[in-house]
Amino acid sequence: MHLSKSTKPYDCVTASYLLNFLILHEGLLKSCFKSSLSMNAFQPDMDVSADPVEKNTLAVTKYLLKSLEEEVLHAEKSLLEAAASFPMYGRLHCITGALHRLPLMNMTLAAEWKEMVEKLIRLSYKISDVVSPVVQSSSPEGLIPMDTDFDTSERLQSILLEIQPCDTNDYFTEAKVLKEPCRLESVDETAESSCFEMKGEKQQTCDVTAQMVLVCCWRSMKEISLLLGKLCQLLPLQTLLGSDALITVEQVKGIGDYFKHHLLKSRHRGAFELAYAGFVKLTEVLSRCNNESLHKLPEQWLYNVLEEIKTQDPSSKLCATRRSAGIPFYIQALLASEPKKGKTGLLKITMKELIDLAAPSNVPSSTIPQVHALNILRALFRDNRLGENIIPYVADGVRAAILGFTSSVWAVRNSSTLLFSTLITRIFGVKRGKDENSKKNRMTGREFFTRFPDLYQFLLSQLELVASTVDGKTGELKLHPSLFLLLLILSKLYPSPMDGTCSALSMAPFVPLILRCGHSPVYRSRDLAGRALVAFVMTNLVPQAVSSLMVGLPDSTDPCIQQNAVHGTLLQVFYLLRSYLDSRHKANSDFEHDMTKIITCVEAKLWLAKRQNPCLVTRATYLDILVLLNNYLGKSKVKGTEFLMFLEKIRTVVSNSELATGDYHSTAVPGLAQYLQSLTKLFISVYLLTADSGIPSSHSVAKEKGADSCLSVAQLLCSDFCEVRLSVLDATLKWLSQVNSKHGEEGEKRLLCLLSGLEEMLLRVALKEKQPECFCKVLEALYCMDFHNVLPKIEVTINMNPRDFLQWVMDISDTSESIEIQSVSLKLASKLLIHLVQNGQEDMKRLIKEWVDLVTSCCGDEQETDLRLAAAEVLVSVTPIFLISQKLFLGLPDTILLWKCIVQLLQSEEQIIRDTVAGVIRLAQSQENILRKTELEYCVVNAEMALDLTFSILCKMLQQWQQTDAGIAILLEWLLEKEDLEELETTVMVGNAYLFDKGQVNFWAEELKKTQQLKKHLLLLMPVVHTSPWSQQKLHRLARIASDQAKLVTRRLRELPPTPEFSKTGEFTKLFIQNEKISVCLQILSLLGVWNDASLEQEKFERPASDGLHHA
């Protein structure tokens, strides 16, 4: 019962489960009567013949109802006090849960239940009246209502005045302390007895935030809705009209009116969404009801709300903002209850009415009904329960959304946009990746227009209207609102092999219109027009279409050039050519001939890629086309003279560009970054082709392919534009990956030619780079390189010795705010450290210690997943040399500290981290198999089993290192190094301001399991331990620490108030776990002869029994 009034939502869930468990026990009422829990609520001799479960359920419900009535009295006086100490929703949740146990088919206490149901319904309405002013407010998220109590109102006024001047939302999260204590004013002795759980809380101050008030209100509204829905759902339908019916027709109608009122008036999304959940239960019951008057209620409610939407009454209280609030949910619930296998008459009538309302109208007063209709349509198209029954109306929905987007009213355009987005998802499916243009969310044009034939003529007519406004010769800027939506739909289509077989759905009429839309003054619209054109041009006609488009481009001598039209045409060529090169049409014998024609047409307009073209945006797009063609020529290994001449001209474009001469435009020139990025991609493509194929070149830039190409790459790494540097670094990483994957192949030599000399430049760039993404790529490139080549050049290039460079990299990992930079610098530092240690570098102790501390800090549960994953990879990489080597390179304390990091990561919440760090155990076992000369050199280790193997391998290594005595001392310190026990709180702040505080970060780790496994392996190690005088002294010190901690934990445990096992606090759990660790430590010390058995038994005797948690 104490849990049922907690302000923590999960506490009342626990209370409900426990009550359901107790209800099944026959002796529940007698136990409550003996403990004087509530003599008036629980009557053990209520009805001897009644079913025990029914009797217990009724008694518990009565008790909860009585407690709830008193909480409602407090809420009526002060919502602030209710939010802090009497939240109501916990009791409601427990009542709803208890009704699940009600034996409906064999009820013996019908009269009592009838009275109980009437009280529950009446009290639910009363609670709703208390909390509805908050959830129905126009801005419920930060509302603190003005209470009727004068003192509370005065305090509220001071809070509101305090937050007004700064006009921030700090009050939403920061607690406002009501200094007057929260008292429970009992009206009589019975009330005092029934509210036993308030003992000890009379002096508690109420820390209340607006968040707590709002949560109290909307959760109460939620539980009311679920309770009323459960009452209608659980009670037998055949008794609805009888004299002994537990619920009457009038009550059912009243519940329906209640749901209607709150769904149509509530503003808070949580409130009307959860009212919807209860209303669905009611409508499902009514749809199966044999009583005609009840069966017709959903239909009547639906007609009434549609009529209220259509009336356009200015006095209507329907919410026109917040996406129509609960109105769509109300209609969804009414339609979802209709049988799916029937005629779905309600759905047909509703969709017809809504589509008519959503259509554009010249009447100003029709705006609000149109907004409601669009929002309701959006909700219905999103509802998966309507299934395929909603598909026939998709075309009408698309038509309404596109036409609504042309409205002059912002609210209509906004609702149309939301509806359109929903329809795109409904038609093409949920996006499964980051790529907006993935074929997973597309379909062929033929399939699209076959499924939605009505859209063919509509989209064609709308596209004609839009295209007529795009390419006007007057130069006047005209933007049609529907242009983007139309092109977005068409860009989701792709060509079909069956295109052209059906004249009724021919794609040909769309092509000239899309071409004209490509001249739009809006960049995004031109891009979409280029993508959309691909679906309407058959693959075998692409060469002809590309040639035609290229011929239509202007010459350099033309007096007036419209760059928007040029850009749109080039985008269309680019997307057509990319689709053509990716298609399977390459196997066609005419493919090479077609490509020759395309290259000839592209070559004729090559001036668009040169400085003769003043527009950098169109130059960039033309360069992208050249990249496509250059990559094709490189892969196809074509050796024709015309192709070689074309490649030579591409090289000329690069050599005469700003990348080679260095005379860049001002950064304020539009499209400069895009142009330089495209030019960089072309440069990379050209010189990669030169290195791979060895194509000869007479041009000076490529005469000496090795030196000059690398010099150009080095120059680009020093570019002032981060886009250029980033493109070069991406290419460098790709080349390094190819080099590392090739062994002795001819291609490796050519790639090494490109990469030679880059070590010095990357080192220089690393010290100067300020852009985070580029800096991360530089570090990643250095990490991928061979340190035998990098380290000799460090001192000459950047005036650092290897130790200083290692220190610099570790400082970056320690100070950087970027997780990506921290991760890659940690891996770089680890690889460098391994290299230096293996090559006998001297004076490394301080750096090794810093590195160990760095790795340890990156393994904490509070760190980001990517950083801990990088730490796991580092631990796997250092395993052979630092963790399982016969020689202790790091020293015993630091080596065991790394093993501790492995244990910590094996208990990480993320599966990927556990699986990665389990590689340490795989390597260790593989090496052991190799030493034993077994046939199995590689073994698979399950991450869940790796923890036990970790302790086993560590104990074996301690024996190999002959460090068992010192190792045991360090391992025992693991058990005693928890946070300072003096700071552990002994009480739980139930009513604090941190309403959703999750507390512990890691919910996967099992400290008790880890402790028991460590104990098992330490016990196995005991027979071979030989303690030295030094270790004896250290073990005695540990014994004293353990003894002191044992006394402290024992005292703290005794100070905790007695509570049932299921109500144990987080502080108890921490103390109990620490108690178990101390016990294991003392037991091991006793076996070592450091701690005598009498003291151990005394410690065990003094510690309170806590077997319940241990078994749990």
TrEMBL record:
Q: Is tRNA processing one of the keywords UniProt gives this record?
A: yes
Entries under InterPro entries matching the protein: ARM-type_fold (IPR016024), THADA-like_TPR_C (IPR056842), THADA/TRM732_DUF2428 (IPR019442), tRNA_methyltransferase_THADA (IPR051954)
The organism's superkingdom is given as: Eukaryota
> Which keywords are on file for this protein?
tRNA processing
Transmembrane regions = none
Q: Which GO terms describe its biological process?
A: tRNA methylation
Q: What does this protein do?
A: Together with methyltransferase FTSJ1, methylates the 2'-O-ribose of nucleotides at position 32 of the anticodon loop of substrate tRNAs.
Record protein name field? tRNA (32-2'-O)-methyltransferase regulator THADA
What is the species of this protein? Phrynocephalus forsythii
